[in-house]
Specification:
This protein is α+β, with helices and mostly antiparallel strands and 103 residues long. A 3-stranded mixed β-sheet has the order 1-4-5, with no helix packed on it. Strands 2-3 form a two-stranded antiparallel ribbon. A hairpin with a 7-residue loop joins strand 2 and strand 3. The longest helix is centred in the C-terminal third of the chain and has 17 residues.
Length: 103
């Protein structure tokens, strides 16, 4: 995909959207003439999505450790082992969508 390639029509009502893409789009107001943008078109996805983790500034250094932890916990759960915990104070910047909510 490329910047803003995921339209709102791809997102089910009430979904949580985690934008992992990273690209650049032209922006004449910036010193370098461009800025970073994710693969999700936030203006369109903001309606159907309940929660959004944007890119950039949302998924940067925290997503990979969380994905690895969750994959490890899936395996540990299946084996009947104690689940791993994230260190206290570790948070991911998630914002609630401005769109309608589902019950």
């Amino acid at each position: 995909l490329g910047p803003r390639a995921c339209p709102g029509s791809w997102v089910k009502q009430g979904a949580t959207v985690i934008d992992l893409g990273m690209g650049t789009v032209a922006d004449g107001s910036r010193r370098r003439g461009h800025r970073r943008a994710g693969d999700v078109c936030m203006a369109e996805v903001d309606g159907p999505a309940s929660f959004i983790v944007p890119s950039p500034n949302g998924v940067d250094r925290l997503v990979l450790p969380m994905l690895v932890k969750n994959a490890a916990n899936c395996a540990r759960h299946r084996l009947g082992l104690e689940l791993l915990q994230m260190p206290p104070g570790t948070v991911m910047p998630v914002r609630q969508s401005a769109g309608p909510r589902t019950a």
